[in-house]
Amino acid sequence: MDPTGSKLLVTAGEIVVEIMATQIGQTFLEPGPLVGPFPSGAPAIFIDQAARLGQACGMIAAVGDDDFGTLNVERLEASGVDVSAVARLPGVPTGTAFVRYAADGSRAFVFNIPLSASGHIATTPEATALLGRADHVHVMGSSLFSPAVIAVVEDAVRTVKARGGTVSFDPNIRREMLDSPGMREALSSVLASCDLFLPSGSELFLFTRAQDEEGAVAELLQRGVSTVVLKKGAEGAVHYDRAGRTAMPAFAVEEIDPTGAGDCFGAGFVSAWLRGAPPAECLQIANACGALAVGAKGPMAGTGTLAEVQAMIASAGGTGA
C-alpha cells in the first residue's frame, strides 16, 4: 500500500461535537451521566481517517467561533486535513449531537445541525480554491440536511466531475433526517453522478426496485455506478463491479463504540481505491479501519494511522478474519 495519496480528496458537510450517554438504556428524559465533547460529524470522521492514512485531503465546512469549533478544527489539522475551507462563524454555535444506546445495539440521536454553524456552510472563495485542486469528492447523505448545504455539495460534485474527477457516496441516512427538506431529491441527484457507492445494509435498496442484493447491485451498475461496496458490519463487506464480486470478512474485535466505524471504513476504502488498489486490498484496508474505530470510545478516537492499519492486517495473517 502506497503510504501517500497523490490525488486530492475533498468532502463537504457537518462538523459537530458528540456527547454520549454512558449507560445502555439511558434516556434523555431525565438527568444522567454523559461523556464528551468529542470531535465528530460523519464527513469529519471520514476525512480525519483519510488524512491519518496519508491521503491528501481537505474539507468544506463551518464551525462556530467557540470551544467546540476549536476542538474540531485542531483535531482535523493535527491529522493532516486541509482546513482552509472550514469557516469560523461568530454568532452561531458549532453543531452538537447527543447519542444514547439501546440494549439491542441501536442508537438514537438528538441533533442541533441545521440551526448551527453547519447550516451556514457555503462555497466560499477558500472552498472554490480547494475544489479547484480536487480530484475526488466524497458525499455523506447525512450532510444533505438543508437546501443551502445541498447546494454546496451539488456544486462540489459538478465542479469535480467537470474536471474529470470522481465521486463516492455513502448514504449514511439517520431516520431522524429522512424528512429534511430536499433530502430525498438530493440523495437521488448525488447518486446520478456517483462512481463509487458505499451503502450499509438496507441502504442498498434506497434507490432500486429490486429487493434482493444481487438484483439491486445489477440495477445500480446498469445506471452508471461503476463500483458498489456493501457494508455489512460484523459480517464484513462485499465489493461489486462489472468484473464480478469480492467478499471480505470483518476483523474479529471487541466492540466498544460503533460510532464512526462506517465512516472510517469508507475513508479506508476510498483512499485505497484512489490509489488504484485491487478490490481485495481496498476491502482489507477498509475493514481494518472499521475494526480500529469500534475499539475506542469516541467518534475519532479509533481512526487508525497507516502503520496501525497495516499492523492489524498483519496480525490477522493478511485476512479480515
Outline of the structure:
The chain has helices spanning 42-52, 67-79, 125-131, 147-162, 183-192, 213-222, 261-274, 279-294, 306-315, and strands at 5-12, 16-21, 34-40, 55-64, 86-89, 95-101, 107-112, 136-140, 166-170, 196-197, 227-231, 237-241, 244-248. The chain has 321 residues and is α/β, with parallel strands linked by helices.
Topology:
Layout: E1 5-12, E2 16-21, E3 34-40, H1 42-52, E4 55-64, H2 67-79, E5 86-89, E6 95-101, E7 107-112, H3 125-131, E8 136-140, H4 147-162, E9 166-170, H5 183-192, E10 196-197, H6 213-222, E11 227-231, E12 237-241, E13 244-248, H7 261-274, H8 279-294, H9 306-315
Parallel strand pairs: 1-4, 1-8, 2-6, 4-5, 8-9, 9-10, 10-11
Antiparallel strand pairs: 2-3, 6-7, 11-12, 12-13
Question: Can you tell me about this structure?
Answer:
With 321 residues, the protein is an alpha/beta fold. The protein has a single domain (9-315), classed as UDP-N-acetylmuramoyl-L-alanine:D-glutamate ligase, CATH 3.40.1190.20. It has nine helices and 13 strands. It has helices at residues 42-52, 67-79, 125-131, 147-162, 183-192, 213-222, 261-274, 279-294, 306-315; strands at residues 5-12, 16-21, 34-40, 55-64, 86-89, 95-101, 107-112, 136-140, 166-170, 196-197, 227-231, 237-241, 244-248. The strands form two sheets. A nine-stranded mixed beta sheet has the order 5-4-1-8-9-10-11-12-13, sandwiched between helices. It has a four-stranded mixed beta sheet with strand order 3-2-6-7. Strand 8 (136-140), helix 4 and strand 9 (166-170) form a beta-alpha-beta unit. Helix 1 packs across helix 7 (261-274) and helix 4 (147-162) packs parallel to helix 5 (183-192). The mean pLDDT is 90.
